[in-house]
Design a protein that fits this description.
eight-stranded parallel sheet, mainly beta, about 500 residues, single chain, Immunoglobulin-like
């Protein structure tokens, strides 16, 4: 059947008419197929080629309609609630009054299409076809009550709400995603509690790195709203440089807005290899970005993620990934005797994945651990640095000093035999100290040496005999006591071996 003229219906149809034919083709040079009365497509195929489909009346469909133009509904368009029907649309969708989806599939076959009109549309099954780079754009609030097929296209919520009304049905996709950058939102309703997770397929670009889904984990029978912004939060007045002191930086490439209703939210977001430094989530508290302490990796999702299980009900939060700032305290300075060992017990907060470095690390058992063992050889001033990414560090210094008990630093014997080993007698001086006076006496009390250098075992340029000798010495310290340099006086005996 071929129909001619700009409008088919008002002039030629005064009563309800049903089409029971297997196929009706409408080909015309006209711009519109227009109905102002009532038409029923019953188990039939209707094709509207090279023109727009416009309904002002009452149109019922239980068959298949292919529209190679725009769909404009300004009346009542209904599909049967028991039998399957389909609508293929090549151009734009405009619903201005009443659309009853019934059991219908609406398949958008064009490249870039608009879905809007004066009235929101509730679809049953939505199937978006096309190639990567194609965009279907909302210009009103839209609901999908059954299955959503994203395939390879971008569904742009624009500044409107796209609602998935049955969250127990997963979204079918290849590389497709839902974008909400213009402050639109994806709202998901769960008719019953879900004992697994639902992947909300959000993204803000065609590359794989820009696909940033949210996984709602074990959601309750309730609705949850999500917006993904593919830009810095600075655009919405949330300065990424305004940080709580527990946060070094946030990921300002993109961020989320989560909205809860009657139930709290437990969710996870993916974390790429390049985002490994982000170990916590952060929220904007109205003034700055603060760390969410109970966020982090969850084993519920079998991939790298950051999750949160405590966003309260009836709340809206802006969320980004955060590099959390470490904190380290190396402990108080301490003294050790020569050869004595002690474990340095550091305390603080060390985010997962942080690196540790002691510099210098002389006489430490390790330079990359939190509790190295130090063995006193010479005193050490060392710095521990904990890093959780570029520019995100905390450091502390500890001084390990030697106890100035020179009784342990004066030999009990020496062998002045010219082998350059233990050839002179005297104290092992600590850094900063100096020998102020040394006196040596033989067994009869005769003083045989006095000086400020260690003794070489001679008296008047002659080697003395092997035996026991006595010493008295004074060491001038670099420490201050009562405004003066501290002095150490020691005496004792030693053996000279030849």
């Amino acid at each position: 059947m071929e129909l001619h003229g700009k409008h088919f219906g008002k002039t030629y149809m005064k009563k309800i008419f049903s089409i029971y034919l297997l196929f009706i083709g409408i080909n015309s040079n006209a711009q519109f197929f227009s109905n102002t009365n009532a038409i029923a497509i019953n188990n039939s195929i209707m094709s509207v080629n090279n023109m727009d489909f416009e309904n002002f009346g009452d149109f019922s469909n239980t068959g298949e309609i292919t529209i190679n133009g725009n769909f404009i509904n300004s009346g009542v368009f209904s599909s049967n609630t028991l039998n399957k029907s389909r609508i293929f649309l090549n151009l734009n969708w405009s619903n201005n009054l009443t659309f009853v989806a019934g059991k219908s599939d609406v398949i958008f076959t064009g490249s870039n299409q608009i879905i809007g009109g004066l009235a929101p549309t509730v679809f049953n099954i939505l199937d978006f076809q096309g190639i990567s780079g194609n965009i279907k754009t909302l210009q009103n609030n839209i609901t999908c009550s059954d299955t959503l097929f994203l395939r390879d296209i971008e569904l742009s919520a624009n500044s409107f709400e796209f609602k998935i009304n049955n969250g127990i049905i997963p979204v079918q996709r290849n590389s497709g995603y839902i974008s909400t950058t213009n402050n639109g939102s994806l709202k998901i309703y769960f008719p019953v509690a879900l004992n697994s997770y639902f992947e909300a397929p959000l993204g803000y670009g065609n590359s794989a790195s820009q696909y940033k889904p949210v996984f709602l984990i074990n959601p309750n029978n309730d609705s949850f709203g999500i917006t993904l912004f593919g830009n810095s939060p600075l655009a919405q007045g949330m300065n990424p440089l305004y940080l709580h002191d527990s946060v070094c930086s946030i990921n300002d490439s993109y961020y989320y807005k989560f909205k809860t209703f009657g139930s709290s939210m437990f969710y996870g977001i993916t974390k790429s290899v390049a985002e490994s430094y982000y170990t916590k989530l952060s929220r904007w508290d109205g003034v700055k970005w603060s760390k969410i302490s109970n966020s982090g990796q969850t084993g519920t999702l079998a991939f790298s993620n950051l999750s949160l299980n405590s966003q309260s009900n009836f709340s809206t939060e802006n969320i980004s990934q955060a590099i959390e700032k470490p904190y380290v305290f190396a402990g108080n300075d301490f003294f050790l005797d020569l050869g004595q060992s002690k474990t340095i017990k550091t305390t603080g907060y060390f985010p997962s994945g942080s690196s540790i470095l002691w510099t210098p690390s002389n006489n430490l058992s390790c330079d990359d651990c939190l509790e190295p063992v130090f063995t006193m050889g010479t005193p050490l001033t060392t710095v521990i640095t904990v890093s959780n990414g570029p520019g995100c560090i905390s450091s502390d210094t500890i001084n390990i000093l030697m106890k100035k008990d020179y009784r342990n630093l004066i030999p009990t014997s020496f062998t002045p035999n010219g082998d350059l080993l233990n050839d002179k007698f005297g104290p092992e001086l600590l850094p900063g100290d100096k020998l102020s006076d040394l006196e040596i006496f033989n067994r009869w009390g005769q003083k045989i040496y006095k000086g400020t250098q260690n003794w070489d075992g001679t008296y008047k340029n002659t080697e003395v005999m092997q035996g026991v000798y006595l010493y008295k010495l004074m060491i001038l310290s670099d420490e201050m006591k009562n405004g003066e340099l501290k002095k150490y006086f020691l005496s004792g005996e030693f053996t000279l071996f030849r």
